[in-house]
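User: quick one - fold this with dinuclear copper ion bound?
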Amino acid sequence: MKTKSNYPIALAIIIAAGLTGCGKQSSSTSTGDRTANALASFVAPGEKDEYYLFYSGGHSGQVFVAGIPSMRHITTIPVFAPYPATGYGFDEESKKMMGDYTWGDVHHPGLSQTASKYDGRWLFVNDNANNRIARIDLRDFKTHQILGPIPNSMGNHGSSFITENSEYILCASRFSVPLPKGRVADPKDYAKEFNGMLSGIKVDPKTGEMSVGWQILTPPFDWDLGSTGKGPSSGWAFWTSYNTEMAHDVMEVNSTQKDRDFAAVVNWRAAEQAVAQGKAEMMDGVPIIDPAKVPGILYFVPIGKSPHGMDTDPSGKWVVAGGKLQPATTVINFEKLQTAINNKTFDGDVRGIPLVKYEAVVEGEVPVGLGPLHTQYDGKGFAYTSMFIDSNITKWKLPPWTDEEKKDLNKVVLDKVPTHFSTGHLVVAGSDTVQPYGKWCVAMNKLSAGRHINVGPSQPESSQLIDISGEKMKMVAEAYTEPEPHFAQILKVSEIAPVEVYPKEENKDPNAVWDKAQTGVTRSGNQVVAKVIAIRSRFNPDRIDAQVGDELTVHITNVEQTRDMIHGFGLLEHNVNVVMDPGETKTFQVKLTKPGVFPFYCTNFCSALHQEMQGYLVVWKAGEGPASAPAGATAQR
Ligand code: RUQ
Ligand code: CUA
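Assistant: Sure. C-alpha cells for the protein plus dinuclear copper ion:
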C-alpha cells in the first residue's frame, strides 16, 4: 500500500474522537499509539489493498474475501451454500455441484502451490460437515468443483493441506464410524468397530480436477489439524489427534483422560508408492492401505494432551503442535524424527503402528501461555501462536536456541499482543510457503463480546490485523464478519490477474446465443426450451409462453463484453434467480405447476433502464395458448 499524505490527519482526528468516546480499552496500548497504528491499515478511497485475505466462512458454507491492510470485505465466494447475490445454487450447474446439500462447513482454505510457493491458480476448501472438498479458480473467483462426499471418511475437518506441488490435498477424518459407510455397529463397540481415515485427494496438475487417490486406515482417534512438509520434510504430513482414549460418549471427560494424545506422521510419498505396488485393498472404490500391514507409512508421536494445530515452519525443519489443555507448544525436530524412525527409536506400537519415543524427537516445549492452538511463521525465524484461553498472539523464537535459552525457554517468548477475544486460528501472510511475505498477521477471534455496535444476540466474529514487521507486534485494525472464519490464506494481489469478463470465444456452452436471430422458445412434448439473450437493457425474447405441466428450461447468455455489466434473471414465485456475468451462459429448469402470468426481471442493477429490463412468463392452462404449438415449432417473437 502507498500511504497518502493527505488522509492520515483527518483519519487520525476521527479515530481519536472515536476512541475517547468509547470508554473501555482492553488493549494496553495508549490511545495515541493506537491511532498511529491504525493509520497502517488505512487505504484511501480509490486506492487498493496490497493483499487478498481469503477466509473461510465456516457453517455459512462460503469463503469471504477481504483486502489487507484495509480489512474491508470485498466479495463473498459461495461454495457449499446457495447465494442469491451471485445466483449460485439456482442454475443447473451449481445445483448439480452442490448435490443433495445446501450447506457446508468451510474450515481451512489452502492455496495451490508449486515448489512450496503460492502459484495463484486455485483455492481449495474443505467441508467438515458433508465430507467434501471444493476448488475455487482464482481466474474468476468461482467454485468449479465440489468433490464428495469422500468415501470411507466422516467429518472432513483435518484438511485442506496442500502438498508442495499441489500433487495432493491431504485430509483426515474428524469422526470415526464403522466402515465402509453404511455399515452399522453399536457405538459401545467403538474401539473395535469404528475407524478413522487419512485421504490423499489427487489434483490434476493442468486442470485442478480432484479425484480420490488413496486412503490410509487408522485407529478410531479423532484426527485434528495438520500440515504438509517441505524441504527436509518433503513428502511427509502431520496431524494431531484427540480422543486416543477411543471414547464414544461424554467426550468432554472421557476423551481427555490421558496426558498425551498422538500425532500422526505420514510418509505420503510412500503411501502413493505402496498403492502403485498393489499393496492396497479396495473399499468403496478406493485403494486403502492398512499401515499395520504396510510399514513405513504411518508413525505416531505422543503430544501434550488434546493438541490442536500442527504447523510446519517455512524451512520444513520444525513442526509445532499446540496443546489446548497445555500451557506450551511442542516443537518437533524433523531431522531427529527421521533419525528416530530410521533407528527404530520406538516406545512399542499402537495397533501395529510404531510409537516414536517422545524424548528422541522433541526440541523443546515453549511456555507460550494458556490454550495455544495454531502457529504461523514469518520466515525470519519467528513463530506466532494463537492463544485461545489467554486471548493473545504470542511471538516466540524458533530453534536453533542458545544453551542459555534451552535452559529456560521462557527466554524465547518475545512478545504478546492482546486479542479480542479467544483467538482460534491466526494467519501470517504466506506462512505455509518456503517464503512467507511476513508483515501481516490476522487473528481470527471466536468471541467479539460486544466490541461492535449492538446487533442483538447473534454476535459476529471478529478479526484483528496485526503488524508483525517490527520487533514488537502492533494491533492496527479490527473487522467483523458473519460466522465464521476459521483459517485463512493471504495472497499478494500482484500475483494473480483474474478475468473481469468471460471472452466470448471461450464460451463453449452449446446453448449460448449471441444474437437475436438465435434466440427463441421451442417445444417438444412437454419440454419447453427458451434461449435468451441479456443485454442492456432487455431480455430477448422478453416473453416466454408455456403451459401447466411443462418442464421449462431457460438458457440465458449475457452477451456483454464490458466489465461490471452483470445481469440477473429473477422469476417471480418460482424460486429462481440466476445471475450472468459478462460473456456467461446460465441455465435453469423449472416445472410449471400453476397457471398465470409471472414477470421476470433483471436482478442486478446494470443501467439507467435496469428497472425496465423485464418480461413475462405466460403459463397457460394445459392444452391452451400459443405454446401448444406442435413439437419443434418456434414461438419466437
Ligand atoms: S480448527 S480454531 Cu476447524 Cu481450524 Cu482450529
Ligand atoms: Cu440488466 Cu439490470
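One thing worth noting: The radius of gyration is 27 Å.
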